[in-house]
Amino acid sequence: MSGLDKATTESASLHGSYAWTDTLKGVQFGPGCITTALPKLLTTLGAKKALIVTGRSLREKTDVVKKVEDILKQHDTFGATFHEIGQHSPIADIRKGHQVFKNVGADVIVAVGGGSPIDASKAILYFHHQEKGGPYLHQIAIPTTLSAAEYTIGAGYTDEEGKKVAVSSPELAPAGIILDAELTLATPERLWLSTGMRAVDHAVENLYRPLIPPPVKYLCYSALADLFKYLPQSKADSSDVAARQKLQIASWMSLWPIKLEKYSALGLSHALGHKLGATYGIPHGITSCLTLAPVVALKADTASDEDKEWLAGVLFYLRKPSTGSVTEDVRKLSKEIDQLVANLGLRSTLTEYKVPREDGSKIAALAVGSTSDPEYPRVVEILEELY
Fold first, then answer.
1. Beta bridge partners of 281
2. pLDDT digits over 281-316, tens only?
3. CA-to-CA distance for 339 and 274, rounded, in angstroms?
4. What are the residues facing 80 on neighbouring strands?
5. Contact indicator for 195, 114 with CB cutoff of 8 Å
6. Alpha carbon of residue 336 to chain centroid
7. Contact 204, 314 (CB under 8 A)
8. Tens of pLDDT along 142-181?
9. What is the mean pLDDT of residues 115-129?
10. Which parts of the sequence belong to the Alcohol dehydrogenase iron-type/glycerol dehydrogenase GldA domain (predicted)?
11. What are the φ/ψ torsions at residue 53 (nearest 5 degrees)?
12. How far is CA 33 from CA 122, 139, 150, 254, in A?
C-alpha cells in the first residue's frame, strides 16, 4: 500500500460524522476536529451563548478547557466556565451550575470531561426546563473519557444523602457530540483505561439487555473487539492518538444511541456499580472492573439460552477458540474480561475503597431488587469475593 493510500484509509476510518433524528443532531469525530466541529454544531443549534461545564482538574491541570474557551470566544459565543462538578455529579454542584447558567444568559451547555460533567449538564438542563418551561435547551458534549454518558437520555447524580438519583427525557440527550482524541491526551491513565472497562461493561451487558435489536448487538461485538485490542495498546503508548480515536468510536458503539419502546436497564454489573459508586466513592469505571467478570460468570449459570449464545459469540470477535460448550464459552469470556482488567493494571478490591463487609447483603438486595430474587444469594457471594 502506498503512503497516500494508507493515509486515505486511516483518514476514512478515523474521521467522519454521523447524524440521528430528534435531539441528537450530529456526532463529529477525528483527531483535531474540535476547531471545526464546535462552530458547526453551534451554528446548527442557533446557539448564542454557551456555558462550559467541566471539572476542576480538567480546568486547572490541562489546556483542554482553554482550547474550548478560545474557540467559543473566536465565535463570540463564550458565556462562562463552571468547573465545580465533582465525581458522581453532586446535586449541590448542579444547583450552582444552574445558577451560573441563568446568570450568564446561556442558551447551550458545552460539557467537557467525563460522565460527571456530562450528566450534570443534563441535570442542569432538566431543572432549567422544570423552572422555566418551554423547549429543552441543548448540550454539546466533548468527552475526554470512555464512559459514554453522552449517548444516553438519562442523567445520574448524587442527592444530599449520597444516593444515586436519575432523571430522564429524550430531550436530555446531547444535541451534539465531539470525539476529538487529541483532547484525551491529558486524561490520567487510570481514568482513561477504567472508563474503557466501563465501555466493555456497556457492550457486554447490551448483549443480554431486554429490547436491544440484533444490529446493535453486532455493534457491541465490534466495540468489544476494538476495546480488547486498543485498550492495551493505549496503555503501552499513551501518545497513540489513533488508538485513542478508535477507542472513542468503540465507546460510541458500546452504547449506541437508540430509542426504546420502554425503559430497559443494562444489567446486574451496572446495577451493582450504581449501588457501589456514589455511596462508597468508587468511580464507575472501577466498579465495572470489579463486577463485570463475576457477573458474566454468574450468567453462565442463570442466563437464558439465547442470552448465553450472544455472550458466547464474543469469543469469535476476540479471535479466541470456542470450548465447544456455550456455557463454558461464557465462563471463558468472564476469564478474558478478568485478564483484561489485570493487564490494564486495574485490579482492586472493595477493601481498598473501605466498603464495610457487612454491607454486602444490603448492596446485593438493592442491586437485584429484593432478597427473594433467585440471583440474590449468588450476588452476595460475588461481593464477598471482591474483598
1. none
2. 899 899 999 999 999 999 999 999 999 999 999 999
3. 23
4. 51
5. yes
6. 21
7. yes
8. 999 999 999 999 888 888 877 778 888 889 999 999 999 9
9. 94
10. 28-180
11. -115, 125
12. 24, 18, 17, 22
Residue 66 contacts by C-beta under 8 Å, 6 or more apart in sequence? none
Among 109, 113, 118, 112, residue whose Cα is nearest residue 137: 109
Q: What whole-number percentage of the chain has pLDDT above 90?
A: 80
Residue found under cell 455472550: 311
Instruction: Kindly report the backbone phi and psi dihedral angles of residue 139, in degrees, each rounded to the nearest multiple of 5, phi listed first.
Output: -120, 140
Its pTM stands at 0.91
CA 160, CA 213: separation in Å to the nearest integer? 38
Alpha-carbon distances of 156 from 95, 127, 166, 167, rounded to whole Å: 14, 13, 4, 7
Domains and CATH numbers, the chain: 16-186 (3.40.50.1970), 190-385 (1.20.1090.10)
C-alpha cell at 232: 492495551
User: Hey, what long-range contacts does 17-23 have (CB within 8 A, 24 or more apart)?
Assistant: 20/257, 22/170, 22/173, 22/259, 23/136, 23/138, 23/153, 23/170, 23/171, 23/172, 23/173, 23/174, 23/175
Amino acid at the residue 367: A
pLDDT for 201-218, tens place per residue? 999 999 999 889 899 999
